[in-house]
């Protein structure tokens, strides 16, 4: 996760238009075009309430009925002034939340609200907090669906304490269970993306030393029921170019010098084949708080190597004045391939204030 709590708003852009000149053997396409703002989605997340009015994290999953579940980390739930957009407090009311987008009329509803304005998922140690990871929909038996969400637990001061897997019933989205992931150590935060491809579920993570040298890692499982059981995971070692059985033997993914704490990897279908798209943000050039370059990579496999590094968008909010005393920064882009159309792939990113007073408006 990002090391910065609280978010002002969500900006979304329609970013990538891919040529379809690919061979079945995965000849990678030309670099994507430069992104443009997606005003329809910006309008969707400009919410006055009552309900969800802002958040970061920005995870999307298509539900069995075609609606879209959005998972958020630090969130504001309640109301804002519809004219001034002022909030009552800069401190988020929740550290995680869920909303459902009805794509037929482009509206959002907040799961659990009313009456809940707090976090949807609460750790056993209540002074800790869960931030969101990715979600997958599974079908354990005919006609029965469950939503599994990878959560990341943090202690005060944003100290990573581990992952947990939440299982939700469908369609109520009530919580069946929250099961801690028995991680061998806390060096890698898992779950920024869970991608089902072929016979495997690929679990992407980040090694975040709280510097600009954040690096992506990858594990895989063959059975989604092993999501909370790392003894069944395999890990990618790019140096040996093979899967290994111990997290300690994993290496960062080849070809990515650094990436922000949340990123996505998606399988992209073109007219003549497939390739894999990684979407994130460069945390090194320029360094925080001037992060601004939404960056993509291509690969012919989920594990890489990753090539054709391309800056597809420069966030205009970075360094701009906040509404009160400070400046803004941006972070953690994510691709949402369920919204792919002829214009490109939808990408979101988060906008935050360097001074908490700029989060009140």
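Q: What amino acid sequence fits the structure above?
A:
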């Amino acid at each position: 996760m990002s090391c910065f709590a609280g978010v002002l708003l969500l900006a979304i852009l329609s970013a990538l238009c891919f040529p379809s000149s690919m061979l079945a053997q995965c000849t990678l396409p030309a670099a994507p075009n430069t992104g443009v703002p997606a005003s329809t989605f910006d309008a969707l997340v400009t919410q006055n309430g009552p309900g969800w009015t802002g958040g970061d994290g920005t995870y999307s999953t298509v539900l069995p009925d075609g609606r879209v579940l959005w998972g958020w980390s630090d969130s504001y739930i309640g109301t804002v002034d519809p004219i001034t957009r002022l909030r009552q407090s800069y401190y988020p009311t929740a550290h995680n939340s869920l909303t459902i987008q009805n794509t037929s009329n482009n509206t959002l509803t907040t799961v659990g609200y009313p009456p809940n304005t707090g976090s949807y998922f609460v750790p056993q140690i209540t002074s800790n907090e869960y931030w969101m990871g990715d979600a997958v929909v599974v079908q354990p038996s005919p006609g029965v669906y469950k939503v599994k969400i990878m959560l990341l637990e943090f202690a005060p001061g944003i100290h990573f304490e581990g992952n947990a897997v939440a299982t939700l019933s469908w369609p109520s989205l009530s919580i069946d269970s929250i099961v801690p992931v028995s991680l061998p150590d806390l060096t890698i935060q898992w779950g920024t993306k869970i991608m089902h491809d072929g016979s495997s579920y690929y679990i992407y993570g980040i090694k975040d030393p709280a510097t600009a040298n954040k690096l992506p890692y990858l594990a895989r499982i063959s059975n989604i029921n092993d999501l909370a059981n790392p003894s069944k995971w395999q890990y990618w070692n790019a140096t040996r170019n093979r899967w290994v059985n111990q997290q300690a033997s994993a290496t960062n993914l080849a070809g990515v010098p650094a990436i922000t704490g949340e990123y996505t990897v998606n399988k992209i279908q073109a007219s003549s084949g497939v390739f894999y798209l990684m979407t994130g943000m460069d945390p090194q050039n320029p360094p925080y708080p001037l992060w601004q370059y939404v960056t993509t990579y291509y690969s012919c496999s989920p594990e890489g190597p990753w090539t054709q590094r391309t800056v597809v968008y420069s966030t205009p909010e970075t360094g701009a004045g906040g509404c009160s005393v400070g400046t803004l920064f941006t972070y953690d882009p994510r691709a949402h391939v369920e919204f792919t159309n002829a214009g490109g792939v939808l990408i979101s990113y988060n906008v935050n204030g360097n001074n908490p007073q700029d989060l009140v408006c």
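Q: And what stands out in the fold?
A: DSSP finds one helix and 23 strands in the chain.
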